[in-house]
Amino acid sequence: MYRSHNCGELNATHINTEVTLSGWVQKSRDKGFIVWVDLRDRYGVTQLVFDEERTSKEMMERAQKLGREFVIQVKGKVIERASKNPNMPTGEIEILVSELTILNKAIVPPFTIEDETDGGEDLRMKYRYLDIRRNPVKNNLIFRSKVSMEVRNFLSNNGFIEVETPYLIKSTPEGARDFVVPSRMNEGEFYALPQSPQTFKQLLMVGGMDKYFQIVKCFRDEDLRADRQPEFTQIDCEMAFVEQEDILNIFENLTRHLLKEINGVEVDKFPRMLFDDAMRLYGNDKPDIRFGMEFGELNDIAQHKDFGVFNNAELVVGIAVPGGNAYTRKEIDKLIDWVKRPQVGALGMVYSRCNDDGSFKSSVDKFYDQEDLAKWAERTGAKPGDLVCVLSGPANKVRAQLSALRMELAERLGLRKPNEFAPLWVIDFPLLELDEETGHYHAMHHPFTSPKPGQLELLDTDPGAVKANAYDLVLNGNEIGGGSIRIHDKETQATMFKHLGFTPEEAKEQFGFLMDAFQYGAPPHGGLAFGLDRLVSILGGQETIRDFIAFPKNNSGRDVMIDAPAAIDDEQLKELSLQVTVNK
Amino acid sequence: MYRSHNCGELNATHINTEVTLSGWVQKSRDKGFIVWVDLRDRYGVTQLVFDEERTSKEMMERAQKLGREFVIQVKGKVIERASKNPNMPTGEIEILVSELTILNKAIVPPFTIEDETDGGEDLRMKYRYLDIRRNPVKNNLIFRSKVSMEVRNFLSNNGFIEVETPYLIKSTPEGARDFVVPSRMNEGEFYALPQSPQTFKQLLMVGGMDKYFQIVKCFRDEDLRADRQPEFTQIDCEMAFVEQEDILNIFENLTRHLLKEINGVEVDKFPRMLFDDAMRLYGNDKPDIRFGMEFGELNDIAQHKDFGVFNNAELVVGIAVPGGNAYTRKEIDKLIDWVKRPQVGALGMVYSRCNDDGSFKSSVDKFYDQEDLAKWAERTGAKPGDLVCVLSGPANKVRAQLSALRMELAERLGLRKPNEFAPLWVIDFPLLELDEETGHYHAMHHPFTSPKPGQLELLDTDPGAVKANAYDLVLNGNEIGGGSIRIHDKETQATMFKHLGFTPEEAKEQFGFLMDAFQYGAPPHGGLAFGLDRLVSILGGQETIRDFIAFPKNNSGRDVMIDAPAAIDDEQLKELSLQVTVNK
Questions:
Q1: Where is L-aspartate bound in this sequence (chains A, B) (predicted)?
Q2: How far apart are CA A273 and CA A366, in angstroms?
Q3: Which of B196, B583, B566 is nearest to A572 (CA)?
Q4: Which residues of A touch B182 (CB under 8 A)?
Q5: pTM
Q6: Cα-atom radius of gyration of chain A, to the nearest Å?
Q7: Collapsing DSSP states into helix, strand and coil, what is residue B146?
Q8: A138 contacts in B (CB within 8 Å)?
Q9: B413, B421, B426, B424: which is closest to B540 by C-alpha?
Q10: I want to staple A23 with a disulfide (CB 3.0 to 4.6 A). Which of A39, A220, A529, B348 is the partner?
């Protein structure tokens, strides 16, 4: 038996108990006549003591030679500590060691295993197994496990069945590029790894499974952006005989359950916002509503006043920056530079200072009088002491730019508080999205999403205006989940594919299995998928997904720790060449 | 709202309640003046009634046209049924329908959706989404979900953390062939899909995670035998600071928890059997101990009696067949034919009838007298009325043959009772296994398994005799789990690789990341993995894994329902060719 207790549980009630502990040497302090060693395991740190009076010379010498991260086992008696440490759960006691066994030595780690480490990110990624020993990373992994477990508890208690869907499947394009897997059993043919279990869960609904969920890996062979992993984890859910309202209610309850169990936060009923309103008020389909700074559209009051920039713009829109009038001229110039950065892309910014005496001072005083500027303030909700920032241009672009500015300022003003949670539903998304490059429409959610009742006809005349039974769950400015009520009849699905540019043959080839299934009595159904990685990082108060993953991959998709992928060996190469040749 | 209740919950307490139900038309009986419809959903079946007196003519006509598997919604009043059905939870009531809505029509299904269906296996596999509507399959999927949830509950309550390990990894050979995944981000390089998260969980132990588990998909690109899927699910566990005893105890408790929660069965402490004893007594490393029929080795009493077949054999071994003396001569001849089938491979079988009067009648009376045969009976535990069956030949082969006969006879005698559970641990497995074809030794469990203390030296002189800290959990003649205490220091691991025929360079290339990690303070650790698919099917009282998987694959590895894998398209082909060429 390697241990009787762990390193986090002993306290004054254990004094005089004989215990056995195992763990890692966190650090040691050698005063010559006395040696203290901090022994660490997953559960905490316990102080060991060796001293001249009570410890044999031989053991004293061995204790003095213990290096950082040595793995040791000790037996000894729990004694009261002379100088107690109230900040440590085990701070009242220490272990007077009577037996010391070195279980494994350790060479010097490339960075210190402390909460605040001296290791840079690259080094910590390379030695991820050492990084995981550090409390912040270890606790994040434990946190992730807890969130998964609470999700499963809630869904199981609400009648959902976890069903495992296959990973080696037939390719069904879903927007991103599939990873493919050569089949050596069937030369020239390839499996795909699923981008999501979408079609499988729909088939389960056709199969009467009614309430399905799965916490499941999904795969996308695409360029990696920050915090995007080629494999990611989804909480995938689907229900039959439901309307949008049923789905919103159950997953709102799930989210509320998580916030309560994980974060100890009680949240009221989630607000619901139309997609169009989200875009109008926040320039964004995932608004962070922890703070105000709602957009005020100024076209009717700012245009036709001889200011050509505004007059020629599709949209003139502003926000009020709380306390922004305190900015110096230089600070405002820096802000203007910020919105002109290529990542934001504005051509300039107009502003109006709201003075404490109720007067205004704008960068366009030549064109707008005090009465005009008072209207701007009113429209953006600006109070004396605030700053009104105004952008103009094509509506879609200018909304995105002002949204970026809103988020940046909120960050600077400390309005994005990590421990405050403001969830909301964004509903009534457009069914289709115009690809401005190709001029083609594609499904905004996915091709299985149903249009709102009675809007199918609009597909021919005004496809961009068709709204979908689609919804996103947004938390603190992040989309943590999204879903839709699906199409459940063959005809509507065929119409949908037609409008997405599929020939009937292509639709049959790729999705015939699903449309065939719809003929055998498909129930109305819909669902939702949460991105577990992001959900966990937001509940955990951090934006970095990587901190909550045991073995992240770097930007090229390689495992940072085991240096994958590997070059293929000769035998495999031969087989693959053969397949490719045969297929030609 | 599609329903106020489900189809399995209404009973006499609901009489006079107005309800809304949705589901599938299981069947209908049309008597002209009255129509009964059985409405089915995941939860049960409820009888609907339409009759001339109380139903409008228009609705009556629509009810008469409802086909099997139509998806409908009804509103109506719960009324007492005239002829009650005590075998149905809803058998006291029926619904007098006031509104009928057809949600989706259905074409005639290719087989009947009944517990006993007319559909052959191929058809049911092809239309798996219809097969899943049948109670036996549906209940198996729900059962599987319940087992997974109970596993998670137990492990979470015992301090285990579920950590997700990556699916796109660097290839680390583990016996079977890896599936490979071309990386389009890194031309000419390939990921592998994990055969198990073995090395990752060991790195988590080095990382101090202490108690890890994961219910995880594993992949093997190998020939498919019956009920082998190219992807399968593993309950993967690992612990640090443990000895074999700790692991056996915790996973014995897990198994006992499952048997109790899932099957309502209380099981005593699991017996532990040495691998050598299992082979000697049952000819098998996964003995079914629900019944006796232990092997009796007869060399000392059956050899040197002028019967050349036995005299020349390495092993003469028999079993007692309970009540087997009742077999006719013809039946015994058939049994002899059975052991001579190529799948079993015995050259013949000797038998001795144990008559009720205490006398014996054997097929080798010429060589053995009553006293000899009495010893055979004693050695195999045969009683009057039994039949002693004896095989002889090379020890390994004859044990396997007699084990096959033992299992076959037990099956025929009804001794393998699906609702009886007899778990045991088989321990002290050999470390290495001789590949008779190549003459090389390979790791019986895997190369990370530690030898028993003090046996490392034997590797040079008698590798086949080295025992490992390896154990299997056996249930009803099936290996449901297996594991080992791992090597946790670089030197021993290097020695192990050397004995497995790796050059130091190969070992470094393939497993350097693990051996490097061991240098930074690796704790003693070990673990176990359960095959979830098999565990679930055995707890469910069935041997067929496929019944517990939503979307099985056929023998070529294809999904039986969506006909994967797909032929690769031209664009993908071009990219792959490029990669393969570059790599050359």
A1: 174, 220, 445, 486
A2: 38
A3: B583
A4: 180, 182
A5: 0.94
A6: 30
A7: helix
A8: 207-209
A9: B421
A10: A39
Q: CA A260, A265, A271: angle at the middle one, nearest 5? A: 95
- Mean pLDDT, chain A, integer: 92
pLDDT of B555: 77
Alpha carbon B198 to its chain centroid, in Å, reads: 20
Kindly state the tokens that stand for B235: 């309950």
Residue A445 among known ligand-binding residues: yes
B386 near B392, Cβ under 8 Å? no
For residue range B462-498, list pLDDT tens digits in order. Answer: 988 999 999 999 999 999 999 999 999 999 999 999 9
State which residue of chain B sits closest to A488, comparing Cα positions. B104
Strands (E), B254-366: 272-274, 296-297, 315-321, 350-354, 360-362
pLDDT one-digit tens code per residue, B223-242: 666 567 889 999 999 999 99
Place of tokens 């470390």: B431
Q: Which residue has the higher pLDDT, B409 or B441?
A: B409
The proportion of chain A whose per-residue pLDDT surpasses 70, expressed as a percent, equals 96
Confidence class for position A440, pLDDT limits 50, 70, 90: confident
> Phi then psi for A199, rounded to 5 degrees?
-70, -35
Q: Does the pLDDT at position A548 exceed 80?
A: yes
Of B279, B273, B276, the closest CA to residue B398 belongs to B279
**Contact call for A133 and B522, based on CB within 8 A:** no
Residue that has been written with the tokens 């809803």 in this structure:
B90
**The residue type at A268:** D
Nearest-Cα residue of chain A relative to residue B140? A163
Strands (E), A7-115: 18-30, 34-41, 44-51, 71-80, 93-104
Longest alpha-carbon distance in chain B: 93
CA–CA distance, A446 with A514 (Å, rounded to integer): 14
> Is the torsion defined by CA of B302, B304, B310, B312 positive or negative?
positive
The confidence score (pLDDT) of residue A541 equals: 85
Domains of chain A, each with CATH number or no CATH = 12-104 (2.40.50.140), 138-272+422-570 (3.30.930.10), 291-412 (3.30.1360.30)
Amino acid at the residue B7: C
- Asked if residues B24 and A521 have their Cβ atoms less than 8 Å apart, the reply is yes
Paired with A238 in beta bridges are A212, A527
CA B354 to each of CA B318, B370, B371, B389, B392: distance values in angstroms, whole numbers, following the listed order: 13, 10, 12, 11, 20
Q: What is the DSSP string of A274-333?
A: EHHHHHHHHSSSS---SS----EE-HHHHSSSS-HHHHT-SEEEEEEETTGGGS-HHHHH
B504-529 tens-digit pLDDT: 998 998 899 999 999 999 999 999 99
Dihedrals phi, psi of A123, to nearest 5 degrees: -65, -45
Q: Which residues in chain A are closer than 8 Å to B517, comparing Cβ atoms?
A: 129
For A82, phi then psi, to 5°, come to -65, -60
- Partner-chain contact A133 B207, CB within 8 Å: yes
Output the CA–CA distances (angstroms, integers) from residue A493 to A199, A386, A508, in the order listed.
Answer: 13, 52, 11
